[in-house]
């Protein structure tokens, strides 16, 4: 489910796995509101914002899925079903790719257009969780 409303100015988005919700607030922490409620037992994890497309992407570890929605929480859809529980997440806007880690230690990616998963780093240890992209190097 979702809560309607557009953010005013820059916003901070974060997952609250305990409450199973994605929240949004002003950069100073004020005006916090729930934006997306996860499915029961979804185990919300990594979250990434694609400002240019007006989308947010998040991991649902136990559902083995990456979902996306508009920044106001509308139009929730499954972006990709994963083979293992996804954890960390990053969006590379220049290439149009979404990258994620999983609980088995793999790093995968999928094009935002076709959403076909591709292994790029094979599992080598458990629980790769963090993921970041440096696009400044061209």
Task: Give an account of the 3D structure.
The protein contains no helices and eleven strands. By secondary structure, the chain is mainly β. A four-stranded antiparallel beta sheet has the order 4-5-6-7, with no helix packed on it. The chain has a four-stranded antiparallel beta sheet with strand order 8-9-10-11, with no helix packed on it. Strand 1 and strand 2 form a beta hairpin. The N and C termini lie far apart (38 Å). The model has no long low-confidence stretch (mean pLDDT 88).
Fraction of residues in helix: under 10%
What does the radius of gyration come to?
14 Å
Number of strands: 11
N- and C-termini, Cα separation? 38 Å
Give the uncertain stretches in residue-range form: none
The largest sheet, given as strand count, sense and whether it forms a barrel, is: 4 strands, antiparallel
Strand order of the largest sheet: 4-5-6-7
Structural class: mainly beta
**How confident is the prediction overall: mean pLDDT?**
88
Give the SSE string.
EEEEEEEEEEE
- Multimerization state: single chain
